[in-house]
């Protein structure tokens, strides 16, 4: 599903953010991506979502080599990927319904289809009763769930999350990860970037660890081992 082969990323200015990174994430797999701030987690996610290009090496998504994706095809590739951010990037002057419907409006779905899909997405994140609310009327955990509903509303096969629990307490963080598990259980591939080692240790999922741009571990590790590694 996602395949990195000896990927390097040097930003303009010469900073080497990823060094010789190789890994595969199979269809239907769920994994964590961890490492200290500045280790290269966001860079790796941006390469998958075609927001940045590798300096060398190759990346394949669903057997498509990203180097061969022309700029006109970029929106089509991005539709396969749902992105979730730490600060959820919601439009504060729009209702929950409007926020979640945005990707479908951009794709030109009919109002009837939009209503059906938005209601289904909000049901999946347990927010059916909040459709008409504005984000500021919701708790931090609920706002993050709206962000997740927006990411899944067009049913992408891949979900990428960048520090999705960064602003949440441990109980709410676990709720968010459980939601990812529900999407993973129906076949969605999930990659979650987080530096929350406590959360990772509790979940026992495959964990890719970056240190200064190098992938130093890949496997199921306990929190202590990961901490020592970093
Ligand atoms: P993380 O998500 O693990 O905190 P990032 O991928 O955001 O790490 O950053 C990795 C390194 O690349 C950092 O040192 C950061 O300063 C640098 N970096 C990130 N984006 C850019 C950019 N657009 N231009 C130059 N350097 C960048």
Q: What do you see in this structure?
A:
The protein is α/β, with parallel strands linked by helices and 230 residues long. The protein is built from eight helices and ten strands. The protein is globular and about 45 Å long. It starts with a strand and ends with a helix. The model is unreliable at 223-228 (pLDDT under 50). Adenosine-5'-diphosphate binds at residues 11, 13, 15, 17, 35, 37-43. The site of adenosine-5'-diphosphate has 12 residues, from helix 1.
The N- and C-terminal alpha carbons lie at a distance of 27 Å
Strand content: 25-35%
The side-by-side strand order for the widest beta sheet comes to 6-7-8-3-9-10
Q: How many strands, which pairing sense, and closed or not: the largest β-sheet?
A: 6 strands, mixed
Poorly predicted ranges:
223-228
Count every helix, treating DSSP H or I runs of 4 or more residues as helices: 8
Q: What Rg do the Cα atoms give?
A: 18 Å
State mean pLDDT (0 to 100 scale). 92
Structural class: alpha/beta
Topology as a string of helices (H) and strands (E): EEEHEEHEHHHEHEHEEH
Shape: globular
